[in-house]
Amino acid sequence: MKDKRILLIEPPFFRLYHPEASLNRFPLSVGYLGATIRSRKPDWEVGIFNADFSPQDAPLDYKYLAGPGYDRFVQSLKEPGSRVWKEIENTISEFRPSVVGITCKSQNYLSACIVAKIAKSVDKDILVVVGGAHPSLAGADVLKEPAIDIAAVGEGEETIIEVLESVEGRLPLSSIRGILYREGGRVAANPRRELIRDLDALAFPVSAARTCLIDYDKYPLEAFKYMFAVRGCPYACTFCGSRYIWGRNVRFRSVGNIVAEMREIQKIGVNYVHFDDDTFGVKKSFIQELCTAIKGGCTGLNWSCETHVRLVDDETVAMMKSAGCRSILLGVESGNNEMLARIGKNITIEDAFSAARIVKRHGIYLYAFFIVGFPHETEASLQDTIFAIKSLPADVVVYSIFTPYFGTELFDWCRQQGIVSEDFNAFLHNHQSPDNYFCPQIAEDVFKSRVRELEKALDRINSRRKLRMYFSREGLRKLKERGTRRTLSRVVHLCRNMMHLR
């Protein structure tokens, strides 16, 4: 066989909107894989390339994403010779891998396919493996792209080790659980792999950063703040595919293991951690135990998380604040109670306002997520959501237009109702796509006009609130985490934005 080299790639998405936009993070998906390979297959050289990272870090507003940025995104997918694709080709050529692993979500699947084609153009013998959320939901459809050799379904840490052992000639593909591949002109689907029981056994992603991440020195400290405390989400939102990947039975890491990773992150100079869990903590007793351990073992470390509205109460938030929590993300989604019931959110808008007030009462920075355009949306429910977006006491609103993702209940319902056709191209629809329209009870021109108005208003509201944040204690933390140049660039952009949107 060739040299034992594997290159793990995060395909571009934001950089297709603007070549200097950036995913400012060390992606946990490839981070976990890289750390696992380093610890269990030390004879393999591991490279990690985030092709969606740019040191320039150009900010993107909603108006841009839904307008000229989207046009640029579509055009970038048609021009495989453009700058970002050339960078990927050069990186693969220089690293000379025998295996390329690509992680992908539905919105960057077409990008992942281009990366796969580039890998094969560099060396047709490179084994291309694709994993992540999209293959786990779409299954065999992923292999419609000839340049992809193997699709990994579900958690990938054990799977990638066995794939490498197959490359070494020690294991037949037919014995590897959790993969789909071609055999004799057909797609072979092996049994699904069991979920990892002992999450403490996984290597910390940050352990692979300095030695494996290409251009490591160009990343801001904030790129390395991400980690998981649990895997799995007990809720059943009909628009979300999380439970089909991680399961609904939540698996907890031990508190000691979590704190040990936080300390490792602190060692590289990061003093702010974000828990990337779909629902942080899940159980009040676990949150209490973790907060106690953080207070005792991670002096000077602040953190943030995304949690469920129903987990927010004064006692819990006070406990989190005392342990260093500085920011909370809440998924509200809709301002209409009937819509919240239809999407399985298991909250009311009154619950969301109460939770938001509790968070703010404790002096914690609040992000709120909203989605417009669900299939049952009416003009009245849309207006309720717009009102909630503008009146909820959040510091930043993160807004999306509903997108039906493969494998979710709402995707299947939309297909049954004819809202999406059999030849629906899901890959050109993402959270701010101007083509997103899946709510037949509202006239398309009316919906899109209201959405464009909302995007302009949100750019104005968020710009004002973010500027206020940058001149607060939260802003000082951003300055340390993001770096002076990047932070000042954001402040200048926000000031210009405010002047333009008046």
What does this protein look like?
By secondary structure, the protein is of the alpha/beta class. The protein folds into 2 domains: 5-189, Cobalamin-binding domain (Rossmann fold, 3-Layer(aba) Sandwich), CATH 3.40.50.280; 225-465, TIM Barrel (Alpha-Beta Barrel). Helices cover 43% and strands 15% of the residues. The protein has helices at 14-17, 28-40, 62-65, 68-78, 83-95, 109-122, 133-138, 157-167, 209-212, 242-246, 255-267, 284-297, 314-322, 337-342, 349-361, 379-391, 409-416, 444-470, 473-482, 484-501, and strands at 5-10, 45-50, 99-103, 127-131, 150-152, 179-183, 186-189, 226-227, 230-231, 251-252, 272-275, 302-307, 325-333, 365-372, 396-401. Strands 2-1-3-4-5-6-7 form a 7-stranded mixed sheet, sandwiched between helices. Helix 12 links the parallel strand 11 (272-275) and strand 12 (302-307). Helix 5 (83-95) crosses helix 6 (109-122), helix 18 (444-470) crosses helix 20 (484-501) and helix 19 packs across helix 20 (484-501). It is globular, with a radius of gyration of 22 Å. The chain starts with a strand and ends with a helix. The model has no long low-confidence stretch (mean pLDDT 92).
Kindly report the average pLDDT value: 92
- Across the major sheet, the strand order is 2-1-3-4-5-6-7
Derived from helix and strand composition plus strand pairing, the structural class reads alpha/beta
| CATH topology-level fold name of the largest domain | TIM Barrel
What is the percentage of strand-forming residues? Answer: 5-15%
With helices defined by DSSP (H or I, 4 residues minimum), what is the helix count? Answer: 20
